Amino acid sequence: MRFAHPVGTVTGLAGVFLLALLVWAAPARAFEIEDHKAYPGTGGIMIAIISTADLAVFEPFILRFQSVHPEIGIDYSVASSAETHRAIVEGAAFDVVISSAMDLQFQLVNDGLARPFRSEVTGALPDWARWRDLLFAFTAEPAVAVISRARFEGMERPRTRQELIALLRARPEAFQDAVGTYDVRVSGLGYLFATQEARNSDTYWRLSELMGRLGVELYCCSAQMIDDVASGRLALAYNVLGSYAAERIAHDDRLEILTLEDYATVMLRSVLIPAQAREVAAAEIFVDALLREGLRDSPGSWGLPPLREADEPEATAYGPIRLGPALLVYLDRLNREAFIAEWADAMVQ
After folding, report:
1. Neighbours of 344 (CB within 10 A)
2. What angle separates helix 55-68 from helix 280-294, to the nearest 10 degrees?
3. Whole-angstrom distance, CA of residue 123 vs CA of residue 205
4. CATH top-level class of 142-265+334-347
5. β-sheet bridge partners, residue 256
6. DSSP track, 137-174
7. Per-position DSSP letters for 245-272, written without gaps between them
8. Neighbours of 87 (CB within 10 A)
C-alpha cells in the first residue's frame, strides 16, 4: 500500500497554485478550501456556497443560473466532504451546502444544522430523494471502476466483482502497485462507498484484501485516481465517482469504465440550506434551480446526471443509498473505529 496523494497536498506543476490553499476562519479552527471563485451579480446579493463538486464540474450550472438570475452573485468554494462538514459544524457563514457524502449531510440535518425549505420543486422530488424538507438530492451517481485501456490490452473485461477478483489473482504482475481506491480514513465519500458496499456484499472484503496484497495506492479524490489511470500509472481505480469518470472519458480515449453487472453503489449528491444562512431567499432560489436540474428528463450537457438515473430504486440492484437515519450507523464513533480498523487490516499490508 502506498499513499498516492495525501489529503491537503497537490503534486505536479499544475498543483503549485493549489498549494496556497485558501483558509477560512471558523469559530474553533480553520478549515481548508481547495478552490474558490466568485461570480458577481448585478443586484448586490451574494450567496456563499461550499461544495465538494469541482469548480470545472459545477461552473456550467452557475453560469446558466446567473443567465436567469443575474442579480444573484455566487461565491463558490470547493472543499473535501470532511472539511465541508466541519465548516458547517463550526458555524462558518455559508448559505448553501452541497456534498457527495450523504452520511455527513444527514448528520448535519440530524444535529439541527439545516434550515427547512419547502417549495413546489421540493415537493416534486421522489420520496427517496428528500428528507423532511431539510435535505434534498439532485443527482444519482454510481461508484464505478475505471481502467487503463493500454494496461488492459489483451485482457477479457470482468463483468462482476468475482470475475475481477479472479483476474487480479491470475495476473498479479499486471496489477502490482497499479490499483487505486479511496483512503477511507480521510475521504468522506470513500468511507460512504466502502461502508455501504461492505454492508451489502461480502465480496468487498475479499476484494479489499487482494488489493492490499497488490500494494494498493490510496487517494483522497476521484479526479486524482482518474488522472493516474489515464497516465498509465494505475491499471485500475476502484469506486471512482461515475460522473467524473464519464465526463473525463468523453474526451480521453485512454480510459474506460469497467461495467460490473452484479451491483452498483449509487450516491445521491445532496444540498441543504444551513441554519446559519444569511441570504436565505436567494439560497432558496438557487436550491430550487438546482433541484429542477435533478428532475430533468434527459442527461443534457451538464456532467452531473439527473435523479432519473435511479428511477424505481427498490426494483433493481442499482438503486441509490437511501437518505435516512441508517446513514448514521457508521458515523457512530465506535462503529467508525471498528470499520476503519478492519479496513486497515485488509488494505494496509
Report:
1. 14
2. 110
3. 39
4. alpha beta
5. 147
6. EEEEEEEEEEEETTTTTTPPPPSSHHHHHHHHHH-HHH
7. HHHHHTT-TTEEEE---S---EEEEEEE
8. 23
Domains 2-140+268-321 and 142-265+334-347 share a fold: yes
pLDDT(29) > 90: no
109, three cell numbers: 440535518
Quick one: 138 exposed, middle or buried, by C-beta within 10 A (0-12, 13-18, 19+)? buried
- pLDDT tens-digit readout, 239-277: 998 888 988 898 899 999 998 888 888 999 999 999 999
Choice among 85-89, 108-112, 323-327, 334-338 with the minimum mean pLDDT: 323-327
Angstrom distance (rounded) from CA 51 to CA 91: 15
Asked if 190 and 225 count as a contact pair (C-beta separation under 8 A), the reply is no
Which helix (DSSP H) or strand (DSSP E) does residue 74 occupy?
Answer: strand 72-78
Domain definitions of the chain by residue range = 2-140+268-321, 142-265+334-347
232 in helix, strand or coil? coil
SS3 323: coil
Q: What is the pTM of this model?
A: 0.82
Rounded to whole angstroms, the Cα distance separating 267 from 171 reads: 31
Give the pLDDT of residue 11. 36
CATH topology of domain 2-140+268-321: D-Maltodextrin-Binding Protein; domain 2 (3.40.190)
